Amino acid sequence: MTAPLLEVTGLAKTYPLKGGRAVRAVDGIDLALTPGESLGLVGESGCGKSTVARLLLRLIEPTSGVIRFAGTNIATLSDAALRPFRRDAQIIFQNPHAALNPRRTVFASVAEPLVVQRIASGTELQGRVARLLQQVGLPETFLWRYPHELSGGQKQRVCIARALALEPKLVVLDEPTSALDVSVQAQILDFLQDLRTRFGLTYLFISHNLAVVRQVCDRVAVMYLGRIVEEGPAEQVFAAPRHPYTRALVASVLPPRPGALPDAPLAGDVPNAAEIPPGCRFAPRCPLRMERCTRDDPALEGNAHRVACWAA
Amino acid sequence: MTPLLDIRGYRLAFDGFEGRAEVLDGIDLAVQPGETVGIVGETGCGKSVLARSIARLVEMPPGRVLGGSIAFEGQDVFAMDGRALARLRGHGVAMIFQDPMTYLNPVFSIGSQMVDVIRAHDRAEGRSMRARPAARTRAAELLAAVRLPEPDRLLDRYPHELSGGMRQRVLIAMALSGEPRMLVADEPTTALDVTIQAQVLRLIAELVATRGLTLLLISHDLGVIGALCRRVVVMYAGTVVEDADAGLLFDRPRHPYTRGLLAAVPDLARPDHRVAGIPGHIPNLLAPPGGCRFHPRCPLAIPRCAAEKPGLRDVDGRRVACHRAEEAA
Ligand SMILES: Nc1ncnc2c1ncn2[C@@H]1O[C@H](COP(=O)(O)OP(=O)(O)OP(=O)(O)O)[C@@H](O)[C@H]1O
Ligand code: SF4
Ligand SMILES: [Mg+2]
Fold first, then answer.
1. Which ligand is located closest to the Cα atom of residue A274?
2. pLDDT (tens digit, 9 = 90+) per residue, B222-237?
3. What is the pLDDT of residues A248-293, one digit of tens each?
4. Would the CB atoms of A260 and B202 count as touching at under 8 Å?
5. What residues of chain B lie within 8 A of the CB of A184, using their CB?
6. How far is the CA of A202 from the centre of ligand 2 (A)?
7. Shortest Cα–Cα distance, B238 to chain A (Å)
8. In what order do the strands lie in the sheet with A22-33?
9. Cα of A264 to nearest chain B Cα, Å
10. DSSP readout, B271-317?
């Protein structure tokens, strides 16, 4: 088996609150990405997906855990020692409107990482930026435009061009199409697929939209309240989900067809990350709950398809 | 049968300092009592301004009606006086929106806000206003009707103490308080997680069925529309481009934009269906394309499309606005 590009073990992020309580935003997760694969991370709001993204890129400091990137534990590296990693791993955010500086041209935004990392200057810089723009399907005339002159999809392409400037190995995409219309989302999804094969990129693709993840990802991990509860090949997880939470998520997806209103598969709301229930964290909402579930916390178990559930 | 809602040739513009944007360009739409109609389209196509126009909730200026009419139960909405308007907004059309927090006052309890709304409806209906305790009893009944547990205790809680799904239920309860004939729901579940969305949509479907409500549901999500609506209206850049029975629209769309939209939506159950985007992007409404507003992005466009605006015509059992509607199948 190929060595993983990224291997995460026991990753956790806790935010202390007054009165000795704490928000366990990410509560101990294990994850591995092999080079060239695309892993989807799905779950509902507040489950910790974005926190995972920021931890993996060391944009925030983990409370505990190991993040091994190409063999090196980057969880504890100093800022200076992180420099090569900052080139190899890039992130693309949900909101392209907020990600670009309104007073800088497309050229200035895309060139920035190349200038900061002192990789190119002068005519070479200009040539590289023009090539990047071409790779994301934008005409060269866009170089001198400002963000307000671009549509949402064009802005997201500029953000992608900037992320590709340093020829990264890993790209973390945090809801990259959630702010876009479906017709534009489809363009971006298609083009992200194409980029991955052309440049051998590895993706961690975060989304609340299961159908989108199904289009782009080989494997998928499902998060609930700071934990991964199921993980496996996308077609298996979506066609035959084993965790009762994944089953409810899949059953809640509305297909683009008439007359398919699902029975609401889950009652109640997601608990707060400051009050994670004992035992299995899904137990209070779980239709399969047994006595043991409220007592013992199930671990993520299995080989290619892993599940954290006493009943699965 | 007189339609409950009858919109004809309605044109709305916004005057801003960059100029005038014609956001609705001649909308024709009639809704019969008991219909469930979905309006679908992408950002900025005019779904919400159209919905708000029905209850005269668009601020004028900056808004300006350039032409056409909107009638509810045969009454011209723009000619209504204050009293008729108050009645329209309670007993005629009730609206719910994407973000319930905008419509709930954070400093008052749920109970006190509901009591105020219930009493305001009494006044609008010309009845004697109920005393607060009686209105409170009614509020608790409404909360129970939207399946909120422990309604009595909930009345004493504040909006920020509730989850997004609970707040949306409270807004639905308030919308029901005037016993409306039509419910206009503008992206009611867009801000909610999918499992909560399923709960809220189920509730809306039940209320529509049990109370005989006419539903106008606005969403950019074809899945949400398909789940609740028997009829679907597709909008593009301020125009209705197709209006059809849901089965027909999803199975045999005729307008090139509808087809593009359906091809762009990923479907979890059909992973082999690779999504395809629509090239280009939505037009700037300050300077919309002439003729068919979709022509710069349309794969079937011919010179006539840039010159002449296609009107809605009956083709193959639906209404469609496309010069080439007969060929596009
Ligand atoms: N700085 C912080 N202080 C306290 N709590 C935080 C902080 N950042 C995140 N959290 C909490 O951590 C949990 C996970 O947050 P996160 O934003 O990572 O979730 P998410 O799944 O990405 O949500 P969404 O899909 O809505 O963006 C939430 O309960 C959130 O409120
Ligand atoms: S009228 Fe012409 S441009 Fe418009 S949708 Fe039909 S074929 Fe396309
Ligand atoms: Mg997030």
1. 1
2. 999 999 999 999 999 9
3. 999 999 999 998 788 877 877 788 888 889 999 999 999 999 999 9
4. no
5. 277, 281
6. 40
7. 16
8. A22-33, A6-16, A64-69, A72-73
9. 5
10. TTS---PPSS-PPPTTSPPSSSTTGGG-TT--HHHHHSPPPPEEETT
Average pLDDT of the residues in A19-36? 93
Task: Tell me the domain boundaries of chain A.
Answer: 6-306
Q: How far apart are CA B206 and CA B228, in angstroms?
A: 10
Which of B 208-247 lie inside 8 A of A, CB atoms? 220-224, 226-230, 246-247
- Whether the predicted pLDDT of A184 surpasses 90: no
Task: Identify the nearest ligand to the CA of A59 by its number.
Answer: 1
Q: Which chain A residues touch B163 with a CB distance below 8 Å? A: 269
Asked whether the ipTM of the predicted complex exceeds the cut of 0.85, the reply is yes
pLDDT tens digits for range A80-135? 999 999 999 999 988 888 889 999 999 999 999 999 888 888 999 999 999 998 88
Out of B224, B249, B275, closest to residue A254 by CB: B224
pLDDT tens-place string over residues A128-183: 999 998 888 788 888 999 998 887 888 888 999 999 899 999 999 999 888 888 98
Q: Which amino acid is at A179?
A: A
**Nearest Cβ partner for A269 among B165, B194, B223:** B165
State how far residue A285 is from chain B, nearest Cα, in angstroms: 11
Dihedral (Cα; A172, A178, A182, A185), 10-degree rounding: -20
Token readout for A266 is 């889950």
Residues of chain B positioned with their CB less than 8 A from the CB of A251: 198
Distance B28 CA to ligand 2 centre (A): 18
| Rounded distance between C-alpha atoms, residue A25 and residue A49, angstroms | 9
- CB of B190 less than 8 A from some CB of A: no
How far, rounded to the nearest angstrom, does the alpha carbon of residue A73 sit from its chain's CA centroid? 20
Which fold does the domain A6-306 belong to in CATH?
A: Rossmann fold (3.40.50)
Nearest CA to ligand 1 atom 12: A25
What torsion do the CA atoms of B135, B136, B142, B144 make, to the nearest 10 degrees?
A: -150
Q: Of B163, B266, B275, which is closest to A269 when you measure between CB atoms?
A: B163
Q: What is the pLDDT of residue A1?
A: 61
Res A140: pLDDT: 84
Helix (H) or strand (E) holding B96: strand B93-96
Instruction: Find out whether B47 and B186 touch, Cβ atoms under 8 Å.
Output: yes
CA A170 to chain B, closest CA, distance in angstroms equals: 24
Q: Which residues of A209-246 are buried (b: 16+ CB within 10 A; e: fewer)?
A: bbbbbbbbbebbbbbbbbbbbbbbebeebbeebbbbbb
**Which of A45, A155, A254 to probe the B interface (max B CBs under 10 A)?**
A254
Nearby residues of B318 by Cβ (< 8 Å), 6 or more positions away: B242, B243, B244, B245, B248, B249, B254
CA distances from A308 to A65, A110, A237 (A): 19, 42, 13
Taking every pair of C-alpha atoms in chain A, what is the biggest distance, in angstroms?
A: 69
Report chain B residues whose CB lies below 8 A from the CB of A268.
Answer: none
Going from the Cα of B306 to the center of ligand 2, the distance in angstroms, rounded, reads 8
Number of the ligand closest to the Cα of A27? 1
The model's pLDDT over B14-47, given as tens digits with 9 standing for 90+, comes to: 998 888 999 999 999 999 999 999 999 988 899 9
Cα B197 to Cα B216: distance, rounded to the nearest angstrom: 17
pLDDT band at B329 (very low <50, low <70, confident <90, very high): low
